[in-house]
Structure formats: C-alpha cells, structure tokens
Amino acid sequence: MDISHMKTFREKKEALKHVQGDYASQYRLLRDYVLEVHARNPDTTVKIDVESEENPTAETRTFRRIYVCIGALKQGFSAGRRDFLGLDGAFMKGPYPGQILSAVALDGNNGIYPLAYVVVESETLNSWTWFLSNLGDDLGLGTNSNLTFMSDRQKFHQAMEKLKKLNNDAYEWLKQIPPQSWACSHFNGRAHYDALSNNLCEAFNSKLEEGHDAPIINCIEFNREYIMKKIVKVDKEIQKVVGPLTPTATTILDKIKSKVEQYIATFYGDGKYQVVGPWQDQCIVDVGVQSCTCKRWELTGIPCKHGVAAIWDMGRNNKDVVSPINGRSMWEKSGIPTTLLPPKHCVPIGRPKKKRTISTVEKEDFVRGDTTSRVHRSVTCKKCNNVGHNARTYKGQRPIVGGGGEQSKVKGKGKETT
C-alpha cells in the first residue's frame, strides 16, 4: 500500500470514529431532547425504555427503545376518528442496529396521517406489543375498542404455495377467486376504507428513509420535522377546498354520479329500493341505514352508484313525507310529574286589534296596484277614474282627462255638470 492510500485509509478511519462518536454522544443527550419536545408540544408522550440492570446503583443505563406520539397528532386523530391504523417497520442504518416502527392513520382526504413511531431494538412480538400498548393508552382505547389494522403481512402468493402442497384441489378452487375478495368479505365498514395494500405506511416510510442512517436524535427529529411540514401543507390545501367535501371525496362522488343515469331505482317502502343497472347489476339499497348489498357504501362511507340512484329517486318523488298522528284520546301519557303552564301575558291597553298590520312593502304594492290580494287590491273610482277610492267615498276629486269613456261626470256642491 503506497503512502497516499495509507493516508486516505487513516482519514477515513478517523472520520468514521468521529461520526460514531456523535452517534454515541446523542444517547447521552436523549433525555434532554425529550424535555424540550414536551415543553414545546403540550400533551405529547415520549417514553424511553432501557435494558434491565442487575446493579440498581449503577450510574449508567443502556438504551433499548423510545416511543413518540405528538400531542397535536393525538388530538387530530380523536377529532377525525377513522378507526383505521396502518402498521409498518423499517431498518435503521449506522453503527447501532434497530428498527423504526410506525402507526399511520387516514385523514379525511384518504391521505397519510402519521400518528406515532418508535425506535426499537428489533421487530419482535415484544417490541410491537410495547409500541401498541403505549399507543392504546394515548388514544384511550380499551379492551372493547374497535380498530382495523393493516400490516405488511398480506403474503398471498406464499400462503397459496403452502396450500398447494397441502391440498391441490383446494388450491385450484381458491385460485379462481380474486385475492381482494378474501379480505373484502370480512370488511364491516367501520373504518370507511377499502384498500387492501399497506401502501399508506410504505409511502410514509419512504419519506423518512433519509433519516434512517442518522444518529438517534437526528433520526427522531427528521420524523418530527417531516410531520410538522406535512401538517402545514395539508392546511394550505384545505384552504383551497370549495364545497363541503374533500378533494378526493368530490372526485370519487363525481365519477359515481356520471354512471347513475344507467340505473333505475324502484321504491318498495320503508326507505328501501331495488336498483337495476346494465350487465345484470341489481342491488338492494336501504337509504335509512345508508347501506347497499354491493357493500361499497358501507366500506367507503360514500354513496355507491346504487345509493345515489335511490337518493335521486327519493328527491324526485318526495319519498320523505310527514307522517300522520293519532287524536288526543290515543296519545301516550307523559311520565313527567310537573305540569306545564302557559307563559305570562300582559293584556295591552286599548281595544285589541283584529286586522293584520300591513307591511310597508304591501302598502307600496297597494298604491301601485301590484298586489293580487282581494283584500288589499287597489280600487278605481268610476266617477273620476282616480285610484285609491271608489264611487261611494268620492269627494269631488278632479277627473282624469280621457278616462272613464266619452263623458265624465263630476259631483260637487250639489251640482252635476256634463
């Protein structure tokens, strides 16, 4: 090895030593970093887990795991509350091995909503249990809570190969059914999400990949900064939205509405419809419970083409009617012990009015003769052709020239002229 190569080797070794030293030193600063995150982000949860130490008086502890869930993300998830979480893991790079596990939710636009992440020693049942237990505590989830989880364990082809070895007839039968139907048949619509892949988490991890080879604090900070910028970006997009729906929901619904003209909805009572379309597409829609036998309405929360056809028919034919009620003798008796009395009333001074007070607009119409009401219709005097009085209340007004025929008679002071 010549001198130049030896020099390069020594410099590379020193640089690596310096970098690795930074990796080690950041663990000593990790607790200080946690205090800063707590101070700047209220309701944030950060937990550090360390290896068990046989000597309780020892002055050092070995890092094992760290859990981070920003307060604003917890509050946003609780407000939107779509009961869906995607789970995924990615390897860390650098001198200290480990993995980053993440939980990603959905926003109202079916976009990525990062919720929590951890750095753990490896992806094991124990590390996942620790992660999800902390997350459950943060979200206030109990044993009876209902959440839909999506992981990266959907290895259809591997499972099919195993099935083929066990029972080839079963393999051939199952192969005829599209794999996406296997999972869809068990979707209950609670999450309002119909995707079958974990692309949501994989997309999130791809955004964070640049920070996977950084020291521990830099790695966690890379995640936090990405989320901080993303929230601002999403907020700007929200300001541009026109209408009550998100851009994705608007696009989906517009596509659905463009196909509805081919469908015929037949009402058969109690908010239910039979909807028939091309290619023997026939389903039953219950508008009251927002369901359709095609399952799309329940799965996505957006009316399917059958549902839209039923809703349009309901609007055209006024299916939402006011129901009749029984007479007093059949009314159910209220169990409330107190008796209602009429409100306090002060009798006004003077003779009570029987006629309705005419508004200013009606008075103007009365003068112009624009009103169609017989009560307030303007009248024309037959003697002088003036508007505002009749022949009975005529008091000698001057006649309108040219009105009332060839002759106009004017009555005044007991004389009559022609």
| Residue windows where pLDDT falls under 50 for at least 5 positions | 369-373, 403-418
Strand content: 15-25%
The rough form would be described as elongated
Q: Main sheet?
A: 6 strands, mixed
Rg to the nearest angstrom? Answer: 39 Å
Overall helicity: 25-40%
The residue-averaged pLDDT reads: 81
**Integer count of domains:** 4
Number of distinct helices: 13
Helices and strands, in N-to-C order?
HHEEHEEEHEHHHHHHEEEEHHHEE
Query: How far is the N terminus from the C terminus?
Result: 140 Å
Notes on the structure:
This protein has 418 residues and is α+β, with helices and mostly antiparallel strands. The chain has four domains: 3-151 and 197-239, no CATH class; 155-195, no CATH class; 247-317, no CATH class; 361-403, no CATH class. Helices cover 38% and strands 16% of the residues. The protein contains 13 helices and twelve strands. The protein has helices spanning 3-28, 30-40, 71-80, 125-139, 156-166, 168-175, 179-184, 199-208, 216-239, 247-257, 296-300, 305-317, 360-368, and strands at residues 45-50, 63-69, 84-91, 99-106, 112-120, 148-150, 264-267, 272-277, 281-286, 291-292, 410-412, 415-417. The protein has a six-stranded mixed beta sheet with strand order 1-2-5-4-3-6, sandwiched between helices. Strands 7-8-9-10 form a four-stranded antiparallel beta sheet. A two-stranded antiparallel sheet has the order 11-12. A hairpin with a 3-residue loop joins strand 8 and strand 9. The radius of gyration is 39 Å and the shape is elongated. The N and C termini lie far apart (140 Å). The model is unreliable at 369-373 and 403-418 (pLDDT under 50).
